[in-house]
Structures
1.
Amino acid sequence: MFSSFFYGLSVGLGLLLPFLVGTASFAILQTSVNKGFYSGMQLAIGVSLSDILLMALCYFGLNQFTDNEIFKIISGFAGAGLLLAFGIYTFQKKSISSHTNRKKIQLKINWLGVFSEIGKGFGLNFLNPFLWILWVGIISNGTKGKESISAILFMTGVAIMLFTTDLLKAFFANRITIFLSPKVLHVTNKVAGIILISGAAILLVHTCIEYNIFVLFR
């Protein structure tokens, strides 16, 4: 039975590459650089919660409700909008002058800020309609022929591995900022903002092409 848990860990490890280049993962890195480890951790919690929800929906067959074009089109546009807003914010954000200042900012985080970061991570991950396709394949193959307990252990293993790696990304991204000058951080924000805005454009165009949205404007 516990072999399903370790199998889930291995599957989660195998997902590092596709998830590493994802927009949510990149947002964790950028948030950790700008706001510190704890903000990056909060974003990672939101991403993990959305992964757990997506796995549960796929496992219990509720993806049949959301596996329709209208839902995916709305999710695609909403996800692109959220990415665009985050990208513009990052592009315009001023760099923090020192590691000490980042610690002071972390101490001022209130519950509203905490839930804001968690919500941002949840939305960036959940509103990507193409993640649904990935999770359907993972859950259908990973839980096929398994009892409920084994299936839950499998999904738990996947979630733990992804969350752990997100925390490691947030930690190391924050640590390297000690060695970066304000000028380098400023350039990093600009580059990160452009990448996020480009990701929003790609998601929007991909959604339009995938579901023939352009036909409506002919």
2.
Amino acid sequence: MIPDLTDEDLAVRDTVRRFAQKELAPRAAEFDETAAFVGAHLPRLAELGILGLNLPEEFGGANISALGLTAAVEEIAASCPATASMITAHYLATDSILLAGSDSQKKRYLPDAAAGKSLGAFALTEPAAGSNPADMATRSTATANGYHLSGTKHFISNAGHADFIIVFARTPDEGPLPVIDAFILDKATKGITVAAPEPVMGMRGSHVFEIALDCELPATARLGTAGSGFRTAMRVLDRGRVEVAALALGICQAALAATIDWIAQRKVAGKPLADYQGVQWMAADKATEIEAARLLTWRAAALRQSGQAFSREAAMAKLTASETAGRVTDRALQLHGGYGYSRRMPLERLARDARILRIYEGASEIQRNIIARFLLREASR
């Protein structure tokens, strides 16, 4: 069963929709064209409480359910996917502290993050270690005063603009599986070198960076208990995958809306494209795919809200929604013909923005591995 949005959820969703359509959508093409960071939107995002939608009220968050959060992310992504990507990367960082942080860490970082006074980043991926943490090369070594971190993280959203970064590193402990710790790094920490933003295909207003680490940290910088970093990362990614699914839905909805408007106006042989049954079927198929992906996403969000396990459902939602976004944007571009290929229209941007969704926060292949693991485990019972 998928519960309805609460009155609070609906109020937040509608507020976010109005803001996104009025303030984000008109500048989306500009940020893509210039590759300028969408951080210009941060003051208004903070004013509306959007940067703390994933947090409880005690830390400055909103009274909104996980389903309401999903709906809000979809609305933002429908107007500016790059802004949605920046926000969801921030959520990864604050979720890490919410799930694994001490009381003092939560009080220190979360209220400012929710109020827009600080921006977070989540640094797990490395040049040679994307989907497999066993390949992680970043190391943490205990010192007399805390820890020494050394290594490189790559494709880290927000990192060059972030005030704090959640970093994952292997310890020297040997065993069948790597032992990983998580740390909170303040921007002012000496020994952090951030490269220029990576030149990317899409989401050009949401910057990603490489980070070189050679720094000393106090013992209080560790997030969670010793060796708990991997579990923290997986719990956070479960949440993040539902948000990526919502981001994908927003792109889908924007592409579908543009297509419906186009086929109603564009004429071929004297008739609107919408009068042709083949075109009608294409639109119907894509609308149905989007709704199916939305139901999977809402199912995962509802389980998260109820406190139940939702790793499998998050993987299904992320896989389905991200793959659907690729198909929907491609078909929408096709129905626009040469105009869809032009940068004067939003379709080519949406198609480029959608492409990364099948890669980050666990590639589609990894989501299939996760789903298959659950299936095989259930079959062996």
3.
Amino acid sequence: MLITVAICTWNRAENLRRTLEELTRIAVPGLCDWELLVVNNCCTDHTDDVADSFRSRLPIRLLHETTPGLSYARNLAVREAAGSHIVWTDDDVLVDPNWLCALMAEFERHNAAWVFGPSEPEWPGAPPSWYSKRFLGYFAGLDYGPETHVITDWHEPFFGLNFAGTREAHVALGGFRTEFGLRGIDGGVGEDVDMFQRAFRAGMTIVYTPHACVRHVIPAARVRKQFYRRREWLANRVVFQYLDEIFPTVPYLLGLPRFFYSQAANDAVGYIRSTLPGRGSDRFHYELQLLRFTKLLLEAARHGFKRPARHPKSQHGHAGTVRT
């Protein structure tokens, strides 16, 4: 069996170097071989030089996607993958030596279409003072407990830095939606979570294993509140366009799902209560919730407070089709 490991990267050459160094230490399952695809997505730094420097130590194939956007880069990797399984990680991730073996073991044990594992932040020093477990997802952290299990809960998605799927499953879902995903420092709507949701709706077997661990290296810029304020503002400009797909059956009011308004009222109360001493983490959580609602309401106003029309591409479930 051939396994494809894929990393898509944009201007993080030195981060990538550390990730590749860790990959030189991974164990490969018995009777398996592997390839490593590094997809350069419009990099202007020395990414290619870093990748080339590992050719004698890793089975690297360097690819170039000239259309900006993480989903475009991911779809190129799917098209080029020679493996029967595609394993995803990122250019700022450190993998456990048993990572690949742990993922592949669950494919065999459960005849799974998708397998994923936990991730924990690796801080540049101490976590920020406002951090609590409720912010774990903001740092692509994930922990669904100490037991391997088949996912039956919609609220247990995988994230892009640590998941794998059969190539057949990727192709069946049409690849990653190109209207989602990061584009340099813009965007941010999760092409990975969207893939999970479509796989879940399709009834594919998705397995979580705590034994396939990774660490997500957090740069200093990402422990600042302003980073997340900006991310919420940019991401929800895109989210608005897909509200009718996300919430197709709920009643709408002034262009938004009606329950958003009661939720915003509760968040406002929570924010006021969080001004009490020792509630700084709660305060930032409610601030981001209210920022999200404000941006969505502004987008609704910009569209005449009309319910957003379902995006044409959404009728087919995906964009950026991957061909066999």
